[in-house]
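Data card: per-record layout.
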Amino acid sequence: MQVAHIRTEGGEKETAVSRQFAILSVSALVSTIILIMVGSIVRVTGNGLGCPDWPLCHGQAIPPFYLSAWVEFIHRLFGAAVVLQVGLLIFMSWRQYRSRPYIYLISKIAAVVLVIQVILGGIHVIYELPRWTGWIHTAIAMLIAGLVASWVALTNNSLRQLHQRAQQTLAHTRLIFWTTISAVATYILLLTGSLVTRTGASLVCPNFPYCGLSIIPDYLRPIVWIQMTHRYTAYIVAFTILMVLWQLLRHARQDIILRRFALTLTSLIVIQFSLGMANVLLALPMWSRVLHLGTGATIWVVMVLLTVTLRFENA
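The structure for this 315-residue chain is written out next.
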């Protein structure tokens, strides 16, 4: 009886930890997406050097009452919140999930990436916002979002149940293949979009969908090549997501969670293409630039959630 009682207590404790981890991972994911959007606000408003030093702001823990300083300082506060949450998830993974290789592997990758991101953020400010650090900073931020989304997919009860159903009904379909391709393509699209921003190529092609009056743009100009590569990558991503939607409608229309994924992806793609066109046709209004990055990050997170849920066991 005593042994059974100890086992019951151990099981209840493990369940409580699992629940806490799942809740914290969702909180960290939402916080990371918000942080990405706040970072975009800092960039488009030109307040990247509102705090010209690091880790302090104008040599103070609390910045002076300048708008530019507080815009950047709020960005840093959100960053600290994300670091705290992701750091706690890493600690919990190392304490409780060493026997689950996927969760534990993600924690090791996240630990390395998080340290790099914090250091890179300081370098980006100290060296007065060079393009290459900004581009890498965005790339790592998206990677962190993907890692946290993977934690969510591996610990959320509804998504774990979806994985079990998918193994029975979708194992012989192309859905998992297309979700994986789409997730990879979406990350590449985010990298090309950041490159467009960092190189000043956003308005080099002032109309849509062509660049100037020709279907074939002037590729002798590298800046045009950067802009059109982003657009062509967007078309590829749209195609891969359409294939995902087709597979969902064909094989999984009876599953309510997969139907929600399909509806979410459809809505996000329509919104994202509209924002992309607004960026070009309205000459980069601040609101559309922020929403464009935020929506892109959300599409990336949704694709990671779907891919990891369908592909990986909670082992």
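Known properties of this structure: The chain has a mean pLDDT of 89. The radius of gyration is 21 Å.

See the next section for split statistics.
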